[in-house]
Amino acid sequence: MMLAVASRSRDKSATTILSLAMPFLLTTTTTASFATATATTTTTNPRPLLPSPSPRCQNPIPHLRLSPPARRLPCFLAAAPGARFLPFPPTRGMASLAATAAAAAAAEVTHLTQRDAAEIDEQLMGPLGFSVDQLMELAGLSVATAVAEVYKLSEHTRVVIICGPGNNGGDGLVAARHLYHFGYRTSVCYPKRTPKPLYSGLVTQLESLSIPFIPAEDLPDDLSREFDIVVDAMFGFSFHGTPRPPFDELIQRLISLSAIESSDKRPAIVSVDIPSGWHVEEGDVDGGGIKPDMLVSLTAPKLCAKKFTGPHHFLGGRFVPPPILNKYGLQLPPYPGTSMCVRIGKAPSVDISSLRENYISPELLESQVMPDPFDQFVKWFDEAVTAGLREPNAMALTTANKEGKPSSRMVLLKGVDKQGFVWYTNYGSQKARDLSENPNAALLFYWNEMNRQVRVEGSVEKVPEEESEKYFHSRPRGSQLGAIVSKQSTVIAGREVLQQAYKELEQKYSDGNLIPKPEYWGGYRLTPTLFEFWQGQQSRLHDRLQYSQRQVDGSTAWHIERLSP
Ligand SMILES: Cc1cc2nc3c(=O)[nH]c(=O)nc-3n(C[C@H](O)[C@H](O)[C@H](O)COP(=O)(O)O)c2cc1C
């Protein structure tokens, strides 16, 4: 975390090791005030900022069924105003294309000199009104969320956090608390405690969670046996000089650990902001330092991060305000959604065939599900909404033409009741052509975070015109114009064709008058004849409950059967 050890809120006695080791920091307390500080020396290749701040992205709010359309806002708008937008880095998928895009994005991220990092901290904690406690909390939370994003609880539960005496160690203590609450079995090694209320408070908090504090000399000889993750929170960007005991020895242990090539034979090593022992700007100067698997840069990566070659580089510290972004010309990637961290650097190349999750979910039993599949669907849908999933109403729609040639695409569910599942589209699109030739279609919902999918099959017909009219006019005017402009699924010469047509329509309806729904736009309703509810389980022993229709005493009833996974 970018907390200058020499900040006004700290005294030297509390940080003997650091202050001795950091002559630079003792001179930075008197640097010019924020308002008068001179222009940046920080960036490697500073670029001009966007001329005007861009609007912040509001997170899309999951909508309940039959509600007006969920707003689809581009995530790249989530960057702080004033920040240059970089392409949104992928958080999963990790195909080579995504890796290339992420690498390009990483190349543009600003890397800070040690001096600018210290200066930024001073400004944050001076004119910009932050306290050390606040920044440490946010930094530690960022570290914990980045760790949790990469090292899933299902495979990595045991974490030891080695904390140094300064702010980097404080970040580690905060991360320990959050990792505990995320479900990790967390231990802490904090050999040189800092006798200040902030630090002793953090220790008390961890003690109240019964998190064990392991003395350095009691750390097991073979860390691999006891831990899945080792977090190096010893020294941060303000460190100079040679680490003293016991940190010299602890760093050596991490160096030996990281020398074990096969990453599945040793714990993952995560360094907070700077791999301890590295030069803040030059990196691992003699090549004999810690080689972490993951680096969580805080606020902005320091120059040494350019030398990081491990698979996971994240940025945390989502608190940088526009004055800092602008003054230092910082180019930082946008944080996705509400996340406290974002991957920078290239995504690790993975063997796609090796990607697998071991699902852990409550069992889906015949005795527990609703007799009516619509009720069961609504129950699961509500649970997906409650869980805060992004666009739980997104569904894959598969159609087939009269030759049986299938075609899939995503659409948004806009209503469901006992009559069926409704979505809206263009009646001239490919899906519409398919449906006019063959009304049979399938819907697929996939709620990844809940290990659930729902298949729905049936036949499709257009919704009554009044229903489409009503829905059309409930949409934002921009979406209404967009629907008119798009002759969906036809070839167009370029994007400007759409933009031009949109502009003209915007002018035409600038008086606020009702925008008539085009006759080529409207809804479809799929009336199901079959449902399947799938719940992922361990060892691929998934639950599959299928509802199909049977005739019972002259009327149609739903019949539930379990299918083999
Ligand atoms: C998450 C998501 C939701 C979408 N929702 C709709 C929708 O509700 N209606 C629609 O016409 N297209 C929607 N689209 C675009 C379609 O996937 C598709 O590109 C478009 O309908 C043209 O498909 P077609 O040529 O197969 O008819 C959505 C795409 C995504 C990724």
Helix fraction, binned, reads 25-40%
Summed up, the helix count is 15
Radius of gyration: 28 Å
Which descriptor suits the 3D outline? Answer: globular
**Could you describe the largest sheet, including whether it forms a barrel?**
9 strands, antiparallel
Number of strands: 16
Residue stretches low in confidence (pLDDT < 50, at least 5 long) are 1-105
Q: What is the rounded distance between the termini?
A: 47 Å
Give the structural class. alpha/beta
* Ligands (ions, cofactors included): flavin mononucleotide
Q: Oligomer, anyone?
A: single chain
Portion of residues in beta strands equals 15-25%
- The average pLDDT score comes to 83
Cofactor: FMN; K(+)
Protein name: NAD(P)H-hydrate epimerase
Pathway: Cofactor metabolism; pyridoxal 5'-phosphate salvage; pyridoxal 5'-phosphate from pyridoxamine 5'-phosphate: step 1/1; Cofactor metabolism; pyridoxal 5'-phosphate salvage; pyridoxal 5'-phosphate from pyridoxine 5'-phosphate: step 1/1
GO molecular function, one term: pyridoxamine phosphate oxidase activity
Characterization of this structure:
With 565 residues, the chain is of the alpha/beta class. Helices cover 29% and strands 20% of the residues. Strand 10 (415-417) and strand 11 form a beta hairpin. Helix 14 packs across helix 15 (495-508). The chain is globular and about 80 Å long. Flavin mononucleotide (FMN) binds next to strand 9, strand 11 and helix 12.
